[in-house]
UniProtKB/TrEMBL annotation:
Residues 258-399 form the Acyl-CoA dehydrogenase/oxidase C-terminal domain. It holds the Pfam family Acyl-CoA_dh_N. Residues 32-140 form the Acyl-CoA dehydrogenase/oxidase N-terminal domain. Belongs to the acyl-CoA dehydrogenase family. The lineage of its organism: Bacteria, Pseudomonadati, Pseudomonadota, Alphaproteobacteria, Hyphomicrobiales. Keywords: FAD, Flavoprotein, Oxidoreductase. This is Glutaryl-CoA dehydrogenase. It comes from the Bacteria. Its cofactor is FAD.
Amino acid sequence: MTTATAPRKTEAKKPVPVPNGDFYQLVEVLAPDELALVKKVRTYMQTKVKPVINKYWADDAFPFELLPSFKELGIGGLGYDGYGCAGGSQKLFGFVAMELARVDPSICTFFGVHSGLAMGSIYLDGSEEQKQKWLPAMARWEKIGCFGLTEPLVGSGSSGGLTTTAKLDGDTWILNGQKRWIGNAPWCDLSIIWARDLADNQVKGFIVENKSTPGFSVEKIEHKIALKVVQNGEITMKDVRVPEANRLQAGNSFRDTARVLRMTRYMVGWASTGAQMGAFENTLAYTQSRLQFGKPIASFQLVQDLLAKMLGNLTACQCLMLRLAQLDDEGKLGDHHAALAKAFCTAKSRETVAWGRELLGGNGIVADYNVGRFFNDVEALYSYEGTYQMQNLIVGKAITGISAFI
C-alpha cells in the first residue's frame, strides 16, 4: 500500500533586482531640492540621450538637436553663485556630472568643458566686468565655450613649456601658436586660450571670440576611438589680435590656470565614477538576461565574482568623491586632493569597464550593448586633464614635501 504525498508547492519566481549602481545609497545625502535636480537629469539622460547616443558615438557626431532640451535642465554654471549661474554646492555639481556620465561620458565632457573649464576660467580668473558680460549667456547655453591649454607638443609640461605666445601691442595682444584636443572647439562661440607672455614668460588667459577673429582657425580631429561624441579640434592662431579687455584680468600665471584645473580634475573623478555606474548597470542587466546552459550567466560564480569587484571599485570611488565634494564645499580642497581623486578613480574605472567588457564576451566590443562604449571612453578620461602619473607626482610632493618634477 502506498501513501499519497501532497504535491510540492511551486515557489513563485522572484523578480531579479533592477540594476542600481548606487549600492550604498549615497544619493540620500542630497537635500530634497538637490535630489529633484539629479532625478531630472537622470530622467533626461535615460529618455532623451540613451536611445540615440550609440548612433552618434558610432558616427563620431554630436547630437546638436538635443541642445534646446539640454538647456532646459538649468545646469549651466552649476556650482557658481550669481551671474545667472545655476549655483548649488559642489556636491550637487558632482552628482549631476555622475548622472551625465552614467549614460554617456561624452555628454558629461561637453558639460564639463563648457560649464567647468570655459565658464570656470572666467568665474575664477575674470574681472567683474568680464563675468557680467560673458557668464549669463554661457549659463543659458547661448554662448558655448572651450578651453585651450594643451598643445600638439605640450601636454603635461603646460606649466612651463607652452609654445603658444602672447605679445602686447598697444592695447591689443597678438597670439600665435596651436592648441590640440580642445573639446567643443570646432563649433563653439568662444575659446579660452592660455598663452605664454613674451614679456614676462608667464602664462595668461584670453577670451577669443572664434567666429569674428581673423587668423583663428579650427580643424576637427578625426578617427578617435574614445569620447567620439565630443568634437575635439586643433586650433591654429596666426597673429590673432585680442583686445586687452578680453584678457582674463586675474589669470596672470599658471598658478591661476591651475585653480581651474583643480576643479576640472575633480569633475573627471565624478565622470569616471559615473562611467563605472553605467558600465556596471549595463553589464549586470546583460548577465541577468543572457542565457547559457539553460540559465542566466548571472547565476555563475565567476560572473558574480567580477560583478562584485566592479561594484566594489565603483562604490569606493563614489565614497571618495563624496568626501572630496565635502572638502570643496568647506573650502579645504587642495590640488593634491583633486589629483589623488582623478588618478584613483580613472584607474579604477579602467579596471571596472574592462571587467564589464569581459563579461559581455564578443558583445562587449559592439556599441549597441553600451559597455564597449564605456570601455573606450574611459581611456580618454584616464589621460585627459592630467595623466595618471602626473597626478601621482602632485600627491607625492604633498605627502613627502619633496618635488619629483623635473
